[in-house]
Each structure stands twice: as structure tokens, then as C-alpha cells.
């Protein structure tokens, strides 16, 4: 029996994060990287040689014109996403795009309208969503009595060179700063834990911006509130030591992760505490601890396997938005996350950090 053809992927950038994805694709049996593009042919050639990629192009358009490419990975700066995702979709290429998906929800909707019109797959690059551990999240949440309050932090401390040179600190390329680069993950986890229900209101306080870019967050705290009473807080920052923690409190207990974005290998865990109390004149803590363990899952590899399955599955493009096996799920996840981004920026920079309503999806 003939083997099914692998998904042929083109890389639209020579960014460092693309190396991670090239490695992940090489671990799959369903996809392969066949080309890389840069605005410099020299850079593209060197990068292709370093990563064992067969073809190099000196422009993004040349890569899109290659009919031997089925899909593209786009780790370009956010303010370039609209132009190149639209061009990729119009060229019939399926798109896996780095986050944040866009600079605003209105921009993202424009992008996704073109994606749907051309019947191509869209997915944003939130890798932790594809770790096998996420399949255990519903069980963990049931054990603790559902998610009532979520606290999370995703931070790293950038040095002077990072702040001076990295595109994430350049508002003309990455207007959402640490909120888009890091907070996207905090928001996505909260949405996943609450069945992708949009919070009703959000308050965000920005503690640091570049001196010459007063609307680009570098250090931010956010509060989110849902109509049914659930709450979440998160911290995202380029100013604090590396941290990637989540605590979810429920009516029966709580669960903890200290590696929610980049899961540990080879063993990843979900730590659950229930029946906790303080006894003996408050001198002794008692509790029931349970750990859900996942072995050998590589979330980057899982992302490309799921993306490829969406491409190869001939499905109704208006499928179930609650089913990760459906294309509509991943478009919806991006839009909801982007809507929270919009509300955070509005609260922090237009409303003095006060609560603002999150615009419902139309």
C-alpha cells in the first residue's frame, strides 16, 4: 500500500522559534519541511543549510508561489501577519501562525474571513494546547469541583540587549508587547479551563512601558471576571525571572502546574490537592494529594500532528467550535483570546486600569 503523502511545509522566516518547529516537524511521520524563505536570499540559504531544508527563497512571495508547498508556518512579527496570512490563504496554503494572532480582533476577523473563503486551515502556535496533559485537564477540574479562581504567571527577565534589540520590544512590530507574547498563553489556559466562555469584564494594569512607546506593555497584571462568578488573575512580564505557573482553585480543592507553557520532559504532571484542612489547634495540615502523570508527550510534535490531521480531514468548515478535531475550534480559540487582548489594552491604556466590558463575539 502506498504511503500517504506528507504535508509539505514552508517556513516564512528565519526566526529562532522556527528552528523549534522544524525539529518538531522532523519528529512526525505526517509532515516535512521543504522550504524556507527570508527577505534575504543569503539568510535563507544559510538557515536552510543549518536546518537541513532542501529549498531556500529570497522572498516570502516566492515561497507562496511554490505549488509543491501545502502549508506555511508564519513566525513573522505580529504587524506583518495580516498581509502574509491573507496572501498565504489566497495562495491556497494552510496556515499555522505564531501568536499573538493579530494586533486586534477586527484585524484577526479580516484574516479569518479570508482563511474561510479559501477553505484553508488556521491554527495559532499555542503549543501547550497539544500536550497530552491537556486531555487530563477535565478530569483534574472535576476532582477539584470545577474552576472557580485561576491564578497564573508567565514571565522572564530580559536583559538590556533584549530591551534594545528584540522585536518584542518594538511597538511597530509587536504592539501588544508582553501581553501578546506571554499573556496570550495565560488567557488561553483560562479559556480552556472554562470551556472557552468569554469573561464579561477585564481590568489590566501596566507597570512598565518603554519611555518612547507608552502603549506597549512590558509588565502587566490582569484580572478577569465571568458572569457565573469565576475569576482569574495573571501576571505577564519581560521584567521578572522565568516563571510559568498556574493554580486553579475549585469548590473541593486546587490543582497546580509549574510548567504550563513549556511542559517538562519526559514526565509532565498535574498536581491535585483535595480535603485540605488545618487541625490540632491549627498545628497540623492534612490533605489528599493526587498526581496525574503524562509520559513522553512532545507538545510541539503534537501541534503539527493535529494541524496535519485538520488539513487532511475533508470536513465541514463550519464544524463544532467545541471540538479540537474541527477547524472551527481553532479559529474560535484565536478570536476569543484576541478579544481579551483588546479589553486588556483598553483597560490599561484608555481606562486607567479600571474594569472594562469584553466585547462579545458577533
Biggest beta sheet attributes: 9 strands, mixed
Oligomer state equals single chain
- Report low-confidence residues grouped into runs of 5 or more: none
DSSP summary, beta strand count: 15
Radius of gyration: 21 Å
Estimate percent helicity.
25-40%
Which of globular, elongated, flat, extended, rod-shaped describes the shape?
globular
Average predicted confidence as pLDDT = 95
Major sheet: order of its strands? Answer: 14-13-12-11-7-10-9-8-15
State the secondary-structure class.
alpha/beta
Order of helices and strands: EHEHEHEHEHEHEHHEEEEEEEHHE
Amino- and carboxy-terminal Cα gap: 47 Å
SSE layout:
Blueprint: E1 7-12, H1 16-27, E2 31-37, H2 41-50, E3 55-57, H3 60-65, E4 71-74, H4 81-90, E5 94-97, H5 105-117, E6 122-124, H6 137-143, E7 149-157, H7 160-165, H8 177-193, E8 201-208, E9 219-225, E10 231-237, E11 239-249, E12 253-257, E13 267-279, E14 284-295, H9 299-312, H10 327-350, E15 356-357
Parallel strand pairs: 1-2, 1-4, 2-3, 4-5, 5-6, 7-10
Antiparallel strand pairs: 7-11, 8-9, 8-15, 9-10, 11-12, 12-13, 13-14
Structural write-up:
The mean pLDDT is 95. By secondary structure, this protein is of the alpha/beta class. 44% of the residues are buried. Helix content is 33%, strand content 28%. The longest helix has 24 residues, at 327-350. The N and C termini lie far apart (47 Å). The chain is globular, with a radius of gyration of 21 Å. Helix 5 links the parallel strand 5 (94-97) and strand 6 (122-124). It has ten helices and 15 strands.
Amino acid at each position: 500500500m502506498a504511503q500517504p503523502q506528507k504535508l509539505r511545509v514552508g517556513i516564512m522566516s528565519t526566526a529562532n522559534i522556527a528552528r523549534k518547529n522544524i525539529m518538531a516537524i522532523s519528529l512526525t511521520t505526517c509532515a516535512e519541511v521543504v522550504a524556507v524563505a527570508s527577505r534575504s536570499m543569503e539568510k535563507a540559504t544559510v538557515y536552510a543549510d543549518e536546518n537541513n531544508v532542501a529549498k531556500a527563497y529570497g522572498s516570502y512571495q516566492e515561497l507562496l508561489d511554490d505549488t509543491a508547498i501545502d502549508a506555511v508556518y508564519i513566525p513573522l512579527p505580529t504587524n506583518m501577519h495580516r498581509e502574509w496570512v491573507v496572501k498565504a490563504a489566497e495562495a491556497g496554503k494552510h496556515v499555522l501562525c505564531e501568536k499573538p494572532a493579530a494586533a486586534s480582533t477586527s484585524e484577526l476577523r479580516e484574516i479569518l474571513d479570508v482563511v474561510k473563503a479559501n477553505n484553508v486551515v488556521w491554527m495559532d502556535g499555542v503549543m501547550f494546547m497539544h500536550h497530552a496533559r491537556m486531555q487530563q485537564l477535565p478530569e483534574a477540574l472535576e476532582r477539584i469541583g470545577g474552576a472557580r479562581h485561576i491564578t497564573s504567571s508567565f514571565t522572564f527577565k530580559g536583559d538590556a540587549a533584549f530591551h534594545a534589540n528584540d522585536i518584542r520590544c518594538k511597538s511597530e512590530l509587536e504592539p501588544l508587547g508582553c501581553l501578546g507574547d506571554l499573556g496570550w498563553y495565560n488567557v488561553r489556559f483560562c479559556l480552556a479551563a472554562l470551556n472557552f466562555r468569554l469573561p464579561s469584564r477585564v481590568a489590566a494594569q501596566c507597570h512598565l512601558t518603554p519611555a518612547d512607546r507608552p502603549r506597549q506593555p512590558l509588565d502587566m497584571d490582569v484580572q478577569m471576571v465571568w458572569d457565573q462568578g469565576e475569576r482569574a488573575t495573571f501576571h505577564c512580564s519581560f521584567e521578572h525571572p522565568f516563571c510559568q505557573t498556574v493554580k486553579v482553585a475549585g469548590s473541593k480543592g486546587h490543582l497546580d502546574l509549574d510548567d504550563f507553557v513549556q511542559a517538562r520532559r519526559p514526565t509532565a504532571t498535574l498536581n491535585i490537592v483535595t480535603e485540605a484542612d488545618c487541625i490540632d489547634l491549627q498545628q497540623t495540615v492534612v490533605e489528599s494529594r493526587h498526581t496525574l502523570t503524562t509520559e513522553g508527550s512532545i507538545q510541539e510534535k503534537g501541534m503539527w500532528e493535529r494541524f496535519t490531521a485538520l488539513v487532511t480531514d475533508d470536513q465541514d468548515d463550519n464544524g463544532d467550535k467545541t471540538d479540537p478535531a474541527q477547524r472551527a475550534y481553532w479559529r474560535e480559540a484565536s478570536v476569543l483570546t484576541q478579544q481579551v487582548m483588546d479589553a486588556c489594552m483598553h483597560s490599561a491604556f484608555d481606562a486607567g486600569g479600571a474594569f472594562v466590558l469584553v466585547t462579545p463575539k458577533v
